[in-house]
């Protein structure tokens, strides 16, 4: 295991770890064009060195867990670009290899989380923030399983089932990862105390409570103001370590194709999150290395 001799589950039982921040905003800061429907996944084929460079930027900021560039990487999405299944599988494996290579060069311990984004991420139409795609649990399981099998086979430390907008998809993902041999965390995108699809978070977290494969539960890609209550619910319902990585707090204006509002992500909240049960803390969209560095310093000095 490059970068660590301790399992992620063991580490979470001992202390709070620092996650990385938004991969896409760091890639954009490096000058990458992410206007394609494949988003950052396009770079797995076109410029993988940029992805490794972004991972390294977060490690230097103090991140201990890297999330791979596979969030929007699916067989279906690659097929629309003329990429066959064999090559698509190789690109999925590459996402883990790039993060592992970066993690292997850090002086401290580092873990790799293979990102498994929701069905809506493949559609690239914003439905990942709504859920309720019109597919049932079995159909969603069939969609996710092939990608899960490839990513698990690449040897990550954990599968990040992340930005899940719907409790139905959460259950489907837990079914899709059965028997893959890799632990997982389950992270919902929420609005207040509800999933984006409108189900109570307590209901959405419940299937993970007795599942030994799930080493953490929580929320990501949400407003920072929604985190406090979500952490409490996740810890109470499941008794597991909580993972939390909200957005910067800015809002995306789809018509203007630009971000609006101010940054409300406050690293100083990490103390309250940790007290409520958070053991894996970082950022999502628009949270860059500077904010992750502040988080890391606060955790180190607490």
TrEMBL record:
> Which terms are listed as keywords in the entry?
Metal-binding, Methyltransferase, Transferase, Zinc
Which intervals hold domain Hcy-binding? 5-299
User: Which SUPFAM superfamilies does this chain map to?
Assistant: Homocysteine S-methyltransferase
Its domain of life reads: Bacteria
EC number(s) per entry: 2.1.1.10
Binding positions (Zn(2+))? 221, 284-285
What's a Pfam family in this record? S-methyl_trans
Cofactors named for this entry: Zn(2+)
Name by which UniProt lists this protein: Homocysteine S-methyltransferase
């Amino acid at each position: 295991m490059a970068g660590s001799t301790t399992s992620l589950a063991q580490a979470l039982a001992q202390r709070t770890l620092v996650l990385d921040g938004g991969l896409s905003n760091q890639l954009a800061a490096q000058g990458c064009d992410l206007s394609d429907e494949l988003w950052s996944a396009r770079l797995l084929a076109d410029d993988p060195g940029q992805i490794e460079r972004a991972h390294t930027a977060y490690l230097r900021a103090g991140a201990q867990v890297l999330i791979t560039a596979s969030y929007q990487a699916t067989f279906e999405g690659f097929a629309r670009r003329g990429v066959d299944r064999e090559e698509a599988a190789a690109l999925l494996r590459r996402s883990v290899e790039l993060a592992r290579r970066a993690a292997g060069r850090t002086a401290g311990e580092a873990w790799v989380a293979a990102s498994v984004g929701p069905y809506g991420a493949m559609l690239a139409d914003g439905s990942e923030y709504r859920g309720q795609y019109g597919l049932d649990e079995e159909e969603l399981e069939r969609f996710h399983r092939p990608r899960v099998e490839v990513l698990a086979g690449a040897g990550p430390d954990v599968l990040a089932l992340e930005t899940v907008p719907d409790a139905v998809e959460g259950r489907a993902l837990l079914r899709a990862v059965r028997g893959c041999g890799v632990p997982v965390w389950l992270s919902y995108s929420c609005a207040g105390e509800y999933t984006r699809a409108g189900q109570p978070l307590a209901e959405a977290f419940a299937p993970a409570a007795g599942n030994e494969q799930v080493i953490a539960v929580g929320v990501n890609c949400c407003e920072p103001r929604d985190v406090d209550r979500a952490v409490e619910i996740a810890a109470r319902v499941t008794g597991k370590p909580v993972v939390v990585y909200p957005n910067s707090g800015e809002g995306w204006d789809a018509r203007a194709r630009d971000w609006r509002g101010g940054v409300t992500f406050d690293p100083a909240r990490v103390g309250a999150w940790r007290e409520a049960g958070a053991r894996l803390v970082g950022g999502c969209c628009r949270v860059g290395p500077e904010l992750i560095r502040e988080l890391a310093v606060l955790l180190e000095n607490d």
